[in-house]
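Example record

One chain of 128 residues, shown exactly as stored in the release files.
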Amino acid sequence: MANDTCLFCRIPREQILIDGPIAVTARDSYPVSKGHTLIIPRRHVASFFETTDEERQAMLKLLDEMKTRLDLEHKPDGYNIGINNGPAAGQTVMHLHIHLIPRYAGDRVDPKGGVRWVLPDKAAYWKG
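Predicted structure tokens for this chain:
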């Protein structure tokens, strides 16, 4: 069920890192860190909540495989894993994708709060 206008339904083969039957991995075109990778289901589906159990299992398996690969290639000190689900959450490509973002010691002065920084006014809960 590909969508001809969808960026993730037509990823060039040479950009695919792991080519699975249900999901693939590819580097983010606008990486926020070295090794920033996307896990993308083959089926055109916008929301994580619309995926099948089989798709979720396949994506989580690829998430683990890419983490192992990134550990060897880039040796990050940690990871952020995220999904922007819906326009209100910042989703701009309406084809589900999971961000696997390697993090490196010192890449942010104080990384405490992690994904909470999507809402900066609420992020530093320990100060409030």
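Notes: The beta strands are 16-19, 23-27, 37-41, 78-82, 98-103.
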